[in-house]
From TrEMBL:
The record marks 61 as: Transition state stabilizer. Removal of H(2)O(2), oxidation of toxic reductants, biosynthesis and degradation of lignin, suberization, auxin catabolism, response to environmental stresses such as wounding, pathogen attack and oxidative stress. These functions might be dependent on each isozyme/isoform in each plant tissue. Keywords: Calcium, Disulfide bond, Heme, Hydrogen peroxide, Iron, Metal-binding, Oxidoreductase, Peroxidase, Secreted, Signal. Its cofactor is Ca(2+); heme b. The active site is at 65 (proton acceptor). Its EC number is 1.11.1.7. Residues 1-23 form the signal peptide. Belongs to the peroxidase family. Classical plant (class III) peroxidase subfamily. It comes from Ziziphus jujuba (Chinese jujube). Ca(2+) 1 binds at residues 66, 69, 71, 73, 75, 87. CDD domains: secretory_peroxidase (cd00693). This is Peroxidase.
Length: 328
């Protein structure tokens, strides 16, 4: 059996099936208290995606940025005020998009079944629906999350686009995730974009060398230099590049094929192919789109269970942007 085939066989064994109950979460949690909850959220995502092809990338990023701070508790949704900043005002979250999807879904759910569906569950379900609409897997989402009561920008400490594999892996390990989970979830970049400010150093003066990053395809370097402007004369705006330049709005495994071809936009993405711990996983996913999507379904469900609030903890917000009770 070839190395790729063996890896695929292993992936199929360990990631295709995951339990219906993860911790205190349960698939079908709203079946009795709000039977149309999931269909309402799906309709909202479908409507939003008709006019905004970036919905999938926005919701995936929101879900990740929420879960990796205080757990999946919708703390990222709280609006800052003049006297009280929130996670939303932290640097890494300033470019998070998709809040209007959550607002619309919450408004409709409050009409259908008031005070039943948490904002944290809306994020998880809307993300699943957006992934499915973009051609990705249709996986079951355990629900029953409650919304958090704290949103502090000082808690936001996320791996960045220039993180090393080791640094990013430590962030994942700290949240109970594995090397395979990390490599899989970075595959969400198949539908993402990155602004020039996050990779411009790779185009001109990589790590003080005075030259572009040698791990990036030379033709891509030239293309991105034209897009972003030069270091001495940057463009007034901050343009963005697709992280998957082939099937930019389709949730598939092409991201992995491109980083193998040295066409990774972000440093962390490209390093997945050069680090011996992740290169084999990358090759396996590039070889098998099915292997990737099945692994992704397992990894994102696992991520969605990080440090969740359940039972009587937290609250069910009436408005996802504010706590039910004003806090000093």
């Amino acid at each position: 059996m070839s190395t790729n085939a063996a890896l695929l066989a292993c992936l199929l064994q360990v990631v295709f099936i995951f339990p219906a109950v993860m911790g205190q979460l349960l698939v079908g949690f709203y079946n009795s208290v709000c039977p149309r909850a999931e269909s309402i959220i799906r309709e909202v995502v479908q409507n939003q995606s008709k006019t905004n092809p970036f919905v999938t990338a926005g919701l995936l990023r929101m879900h990740f940025h929420d879960c990796f701070v205080r757990g999946c508790d919708a703390s990222i949704l709280i609006d800052p005020t003049k006297n009280k900043p929130s996670e939303k005002s932290a640097g890494p979250n300033l470019s998070v998009r998709g809040y209007e999807v959550i607002d619309d879904a919450k408004k409709r759910l409050e009409v259908a079944c008031p005070n039943k569906v948490s904002c944290a569950d809306i994020i998880a379900l809307a993300t699943r629906d957006a992934v499915t609409l973009a051609g990705g897997p249709n996986y079951s989402v355990p629900t029953g999350r409650r919304d958090g009561l704290v949103s502090n920008p000082n808690d936001v400490n996320l791996p960045g686009p220039s993180s090393s594999v080791s640094d990013a892996l430590q962030a994942f390990i700290n949240k109970g995730m594995t090397l395979n989970d990390m490599t899989t979830l970075l595959g969400a970049h198949t539908v993402g974009v990155a602004h020039c400010q996050f990779f411009q150093d790779r185009l001109f003066d990589f790590q003080g060398s005075g030259s572009p990053d040698p791990s990036m395809d030379a033709a891509l370097v030239t293309k991105l230099q034209k897009l972003c402007g030069t270091q001495s004369k940057p463009l007034d705006s901050d343009p963005a590049a697709f992280l998957d330049q082939n099937t930019s709005f389709v949730f598939d495994n092409q991201f992995y094929n491109q980083i193998i071809q040295k066409k990774g936009i972000l440093q962390i993405d490209q390093e997945l192919t050069s680090d011996s711990r992740t290169s084999g996983i990358v090759s396996g996913f590039a070889f098998s789109g099915t292997g990737f999507t099945q692994s992704f379904a397992s990894a994102i469900v696992k991520m969605g269970s990080i440090e969740v609030l359940a039972g009587n903890a937290g609250e069910i917000r009436k408005n996802c942007r504010v706590f039910n009770t004003r806090r000093a």
